[in-house]
Amino acid sequence: MSQEPWTDEDEYWLATRSPSAGWRYGPKDRVVLGGKGLAMGITVAHLTFCVLWGVQAPGWAIIFFVYSLLPVWAIGGAVGSLLGLALRRARNQWLHVAAFFAGGLLMCAPFGGLSATGPLLFSSSIALAAGIGRLAAWKLVRINNADPLTS
Predict the structure, then answer these.
(1) Residue 15 confidence class, pLDDT cut points 50, 70, 90
(2) Average pLDDT over every residue of 23-52
(3) What integer is the mean pLDDT of 6-29?
(4) pLDDT score recorded for residue 11
(5) What torsion do the CA atoms of 67, 69, 74, 78 make, to the nearest 10 degrees?
(6) What's the maximum distance between 2 C-alpha atoms anywhere in the chain?
(7) Left, alpha or beta for 22 (phi > 0: left; psi -120 to 50: alpha)?
(8) Residues contacting residue 37 through CB under 8 Å, at least 6 positions apart
(9) What's the Cα-to-Cα distance from 62 to each of 23, 39, 40, 139, rounded to whole Å?
(10) Which helix (H) or strand (E) element contains residue 143?
């Protein structure tokens, strides 16, 4: 034990800048969505998509829910993780929501012709579900608030 009651290091250790302490991702990554957030987003997107289509055909809602489980989780997991990886440097989460909406719209537009209700309804329902799914994971992201000029 020191004779001195306190030292500068003990007093000011919280004020020292350590931008990378506890951040296991890249120094330029600002927003990172973990596995829990991805699963939450896919779950909410799947339920939203099923509700949008269940309103149009209530008799087919349960069947549609069961048959869309595997495709939604496979495609949603792959596209969601790749899009999240590409957007790690963007700190604005509204940009992430818009990118998920636009990604869903652009990805499904060529397949909209297979729908009886037309390309716009099919693509926009998937895009809306993807955007709402990313919005649901808003609070589950990890944010690096370090100043980009010092890192």
Answers:
(1) very low
(2) 86
(3) 56
(4) 47
(5) 130
(6) 83
(7) left
(8) 137, 140, 141
(9) 42, 21, 20, 30
(10) strand 141-143
Sole residue written with tokens 């069961």: 66
Handedness of CA 86, 90, 91, 95 (dihedral sign): negative
In one-letter notation, the amino acid at residue 146 is: A
Quick one: which H or E segment has residue 82? helix 69-86
Segments making up each domain of the chain, as ranges: 28-143
Confidence of residue 3 (pLDDT cuts 50, 70, 90): low
Q: Is the C-alpha dihedral spanning 38, 23, 97, 103 positive or negative?
A: negative
Q: Mean of the pLDDT values across residues 141-148?
A: 72
- Residues 6+ away with beta carbon under 8 Å from 54: 60, 61, 64, 65
